[in-house]
Specification:
The complex is a heterodimer of chains A (about 325) and B (about 325). Chain A has about 325 residues and is α+β, with helices and mostly antiparallel strands. Chain A is built from ten helices and 13 strands. Chain B folds into four domains: about 80 residues, Winged helix-like DNA-binding domain superfamily/Winged helix DNA-binding domain (Arc Repressor Mutant, subunit A, Orthogonal Bundle); about 50 residues, no CATH class; about 90 residues, SH3 type barrels (Roll); about 70 residues, Alpha-Beta Plaits, CATH 3.30.70. Classes of the chains: A alpha+beta (about 325), B alpha+beta (about 325).
Amino acid sequence: MSAEASPRAARAARAPATATATERLQRLLALVPYVVSRNSAGMAETAAAFGVSERELVDDLNLLWCVELRSPDPYCPIDLSYEGGEIVVSEAEAIGRPLRLGVDEACALLIALRMLADLPSVGDGSALSRTIAKLEAAAGAAAGPAAQIAVQVDGMTAKSTAAAVTEALNRDRRLHLSYYVPGRDEATERDVDPMRLLVVEGRSYLEGWCRRADDVRLFRLDRVLAIEVLDVARDVPAGAEHVDVDRGLFRPSPQDVHVVFELAPAGRWVAEDYPCEQVDELPDGRMRIELRTPDTQWVRRMALRLGEDARLLAPADLVDQVVSDAAQALDYYA
Amino acid sequence: MSRRKTERLLSLVVCLLSARRYLTAAQIRAAVPGYPDSFDAFKRMFERDKDELRELGIPLETGTNASGDEELGYRISRQAYELPEITLEPDEAAVLGLAARVWRRAELAGAAEGALLKLRAAGIDAEDLTQPGIEPRVQTPEAAFGPLWEAVRDRRPVTFAYRAAGRSAAQQRNLEPWGVVNRRGRWYVAGQDADRGAQRVFRLSRIDGPVRFTGPVGTVVVPPGTDVRAAVRDWDAEPIVPRSCRVRIRSGAGYGLRRHALSIEPDDAEGWDVAELNFTDSGWWSEHLASFGADVVVLEPSDLRDAVIGRLKGVLT
């Protein structure tokens, strides 16, 4: 048995046109109960629900209708029609109910639901616990391993902060934030028109139109020092684009400085915690990393923090700056 | 070819679900169109078909109708096959839709989609965009996630090369995995370290190379009452013996320290304040203080002061 990472995620992303026979079988076994449970279903709506074109759906329906068993006497177990764009299944034989949830399927949903339970902003919480209970009951034994895997979301965010963000989103209101920027080590005051509440890499972020930067910005909720829902309607410019959460939160820009560190083994955590453009292993567990950041202050502070666990190699002016920072600081201990 | 195979597999499922008794291979061959004429070729194809149905989670049973029967037969029990009745209120369907989006582009994305498909087939309308204001995600960039989840799910021991924090070389580790936990955006596996005979936690991003199974399915026993969340939480929890320190902070700077200060008073020297702060992990704390450079000077305790001086000198070497 191969122990390499399984290709499930890649398989899921594949277009239906190249679906394998078993993937199509799964769809067919869901299609009949989908229609049966709704009595009838529109072609367009059904195609959308299954992520296929209407032509592919017609092909699926014809395939189901053509199923024939030969023994003892030949008969067609499934009877259906799709006249006038409305699908009706008049004979579903034994496949009128969907197949049970598999272990991965049941666990994927249960793990996600329990993760949502950590978020103060998802409903009143009772819908979550009711859904979890119903899903566990329906999944039966397949739900078992879900107890063995968990996703925890930051407990650092003040409930009042999350509540204010949710309120502003629900009531279309502008927010005023007092926000700590660690790279510059300062508290900033700004008005923000909220767009979404994101939960990525275990932390909650407010995505919003920052009226100080005149751009979309992300604010980590645990760095919000104070928050106020203003009596002003939120006003997000039509051109404001959502951050693509799935491509990572850090978006390098051409103005960023190009930073190179050489890390000792004790400094390797930097490569784990920050997105690097290039990571090269060196002898003795040392490592050379390259990354981009708009924030030179962050680089200076990181170099000071790392001490002998890292050497800043580029950019040259920052290398000089860090040496002078350290020398100045040491003067106070002389 | 693929369409014919889909037709054959579908017919096989319908045939076995409709059967009240176990059907022998010969009976199945007679009923299901699409199998080759040669009996050997049929047997080979039927074996593959059975495997593929089982991989989809279809509960294909083998047995005999009477104790005297010699030949094994096959059937699918409808009770084992069918998803039990489930109905959701609109607010429940909304959180389900939200939950299904959590894995998007991560390891279990396909599984979450598959589950949603079956629940839709059961009549549930899980709206995709009922809560447009919130977007939760979990990511699985670590290659080790897939095999470790399978190992936890199937209760199989594993081995992998692991580079512990600050170590220069990776070491081979043998683990009976009990659970996988994501904490602060990072994945960890907790379990019984077979070589050390003790419970251990490993960070997935520090696993070097492939994870291999070292034993059959069902051989790992998770001790009753094991709380994998707690195991991971305790693993990197700092010893909770807070110490206090006094530092000078330049006026108008060191905001990240002022936020957490127990007290702040103006210093005798112009342009400086003196703050009292609590800390627990002195290694991390000295690095944090050093990162403020010439804006922060440690007054006491002396071991902390020396650690910060050491950090700063390290920059110059």
